Amino acid sequence: MTEHTRTAVMTAPTRDTHTNWAANNPILPEGVLGVVFSRLYSGSVEFFVGDGTHTYAELEKSGDVLSGYVTNTALEAKGFLKENNLTVQTVQNVVEQVQDLGSISSAVALNPAAGNIIKATVAGAVTFTLNAAETGCRVLTLMLTNAGAYTITWPAAVKWPGGDAPTFEATGTSLVNLVVHGGVVYGADLCTSQQNLDS
């Protein structure tokens, strides 16, 4: 049996059964990972993170997510978090990464990895390229200023409603969504044809 005391200094993840954790009820140093093995369920494992203040009994535990009272502690994860049934009740304050391309013309490669929202002012004929083989499902929102002033050539893989790419006003800001999924790019004009956000 591993001994845990309130004054123990642990710098690496530590583990024990729930019975022993509860009996010793230690305070883990801030950022130290605790692992709880349970015999109640086959293969059941719980996790918690110490904060240097709260005891084992006071900390929240989870079998899938590291949680608890963690203050001013940076936890770094490398790899992938795999969860079959992830339920989130409310997501707030989501901030999308914005790519501001400035003035564009000629060939422009759209890169979803650099941000899902792309702002640009069309200053000449533009040919957009996009890798339709992106993994998973990617959604790009293009905010194009003066999109109708010059010719825009879209990737051949884009499927537009009705088969035709949208027509934009020569001035103002227009919105276009591109959804990349399964090797196909689906396009949608978020403004009525021949309109823009400034109309």
Task: Tell me the number of structural domains.
Answer: 2
One letter per element, helices H and strands E, the order comes to EHEEEEEEEEE
Low-confidence stretches: 4-12, 64-72, 78-82
Query: What gyration radius follows from the Cα positions, in whole Å?
Result: 26 Å
Tell me the helix content: under 10%
Mean pLDDT: 76
Put simply, the count of helices is 1
Spatial gap, N to C terminus: 73 Å
Biggest sheet features? 7 strands, mixed
Percent of residues in beta strands: 25-35%
What best-fitting shape do the alpha-carbon axes yield?
elongated
Number of strands: 10
Structural class: mainly beta
Report on the structure:
With 199 residues, the protein is mainly beta. The chain has two domains: 1-80, no CATH class; 98-189. It is 4% helix and 35% strand. The protein is built from one helix and ten strands, in the order βαβββββββββ. The strands form two sheets. Strands 4, 5, 6, 7, 8, 9 and 10 form a seven-stranded mixed sheet that branches. Strands 1-2-3 form a three-stranded mixed sheet.
